[in-house]
Amino acid sequence: MINQIKIITLFVFIFSCGLLFSEDTKKEPEDKYTTMNIMLTKIVDTSKGVIIEYFAGDQLTYTYLPDDFFKSGMAVRVWEDDRNISPQANVVFKNLKPFKVKLYIPRNASSLIYRYKEFLTDEEKDKFKVTDLEFKF
What we know:
The chain is an alpha/beta fold. Helices cover 26% and strands 40% of the residues. Strands 1, 2, 3, 4, 5, 6 and 7 form a seven-stranded mixed beta sheet that branches.
């Protein structure tokens, strides 16, 4: 009987110590995710990556997505079979900073919207040397 009381007391002691230590650990704030959809006016495919053109307010704006973004999964292309869909980018924000982007592109897009550019200027090549997604609104 005394051994059972000692064992029960030991379990209660271990359990209460576990509760005390678990309350002392600090909780990290949870990440908050939001999304925004951007209608694209032009998508330019290049040897270095993709240039997307869109309106931010009343100004025409460009964002450069290097091929590394697509390899790492930071950027994804989704080819849509519906020709009536407009090209768009769905931007995922993590704690209010652009985190990932998904490009929705019609498979049979006109040459006015989807283009391929073979030769880039040195200035354009330098713009592909980015490590973070950048979008202006």
